[in-house]
Amino acid sequence: MSAAAFAEKAALVAGGTRGIGLACCRRFLDQGAGVVFCGTSEDGVRATAAELEGLGGGPVAGYVCDVADAAAVQRLVDETLRLFGRLDVCVTAAGVGPWGPFDQLRPPDVERQLAVNVLGVHNVVAAAARVMRAQGAGSVVTIGSISGLRADCDAASYCASKAAVHLLTKAFARELAAHRVRVNCVAPGWVDTDMNDGLREDAAARRAVCAAIPLGRLGRPEEIAEVVAFLAGDEAAAISGAVVVADGGLTSR
Amino acid sequence: METLRDSPARPLGGLAAVVIGAADPLTAAIVRRLLADGAGVLTTAPDEEAALALEADLAAEGGVAYVVAADAARARDADAVFGEALRVFGAIDIAVAIAGALPGPPGGGPFDLDDGAFERTLLASLRPAFAGARRAARLMTARGRGGSIVIVAGLSLAGASREGAAAEDAPDGFRGRARPADAPADLVAGAAGGALEALTRGIGAAGGARDVRANLVRVAAADGAGPPLGAPATARDVAAAVAFLASPRASYVSGAVLPVDGGLESLR
Fold first, then answer.
1. Among candidates B13, B33, B37, B36, which has minimal Cα distance to B25?
2. A10-244: what CATH class?
3. Which residues of chain B have a CB within 8 Å of the CB of A238?
């Protein structure tokens, strides 16, 4: 693999201001790609853009965009095309809670979760697919979760939303294969991100989580980004419809 | 195995790999890829003649790999192979086991397979992976610096073409079977594939505490019209997946299945 595996390529990262999405932005920039990312907070987008520009990699642009809003997502993809004239890689990394006993959650919060985690993936991949179909090439990587593979406690709707991402991935892959567009999913386990910041403060909870993981530790966002980059790139040219677990062995126990 | 991207051009630089294979095009492609990524490589061949031929082929391309004749399905041979690798390299960081040869379908219906064919097929498929992975996991856990085990499952080495450079991109002689179907051997091949997945997960679960990762590359090819992406996976595609899982780039991936099949996975 060359040091600039994504030179001259354009990547879109939906949900790129924090955690796994941010690590993906860094990874693609480091490998020579131009990157467009989005987030929902104007401050977050501005700060992330400044940080990524400081890395001195490929060109980067950040936008405020709610993935649950299909029209806004379309504008985001249009903007990517205006900047780079192409779209080679698309990553869907936006994901939200709530977590808690399912019968105690507020219905608007659950609706918002499904809107971002499921509908958001549909919106982003649909807008990207319209470009990639026409190009006759492209690679999409969704971020699922091991929570989409089996039931976690206090995460019913999150689990369901990620299981939906896994099957959307396979269905998109099936529809787009004839156009040489690949769609794959990375299903992370416990990763040290803001989403799991409870584990940063609660040492006992962190120890309990790590004890259940064969590798004995949380994943780092950049370790997930490595799997995303592999699936996004030409080395995975024969892989589509795959849900690749990256959980330190947790679900193999 | 902790540092990410020490040297992007040689992601396996300084690491030693054992590839349990059969000197066929797929094994050769994996060996070439690991060499190109900077690893030291020792691999197996069914006999002395095949070992010398592969060693000469690689040398002509400027690659240096150790090729030893061994029956990978015999535990004693596997131990000897790893012993030789230890002597040469001092330690093993990567072990790749390519699931063994599957006999061709003997004819008859799916339920006509006799006990002898069942045992031969199952053992040929499982033993090299088990014997190789067990030995590798022992060495890696004892050494305490971790390691990566990759099992390659789902293809028939027996049917693999051994002809020249074109074979590099050929579908490795396993075209025609996307999954267990009506050919009698396929019932057992499917069962063996499931067993290899369970074996991989078990190694990953048990070796994790010593930083030993284990993953499976699942290869398949389609009937007739070909897989969804239009072209079957090549030996190079499989080698790229193996190289990724073997490398520190996959440092949080263990117990995973990576399907390299031209998109057949989307139909599963």
1. B33
2. alpha beta
3. 229, 231-234, 237-238, 260-263
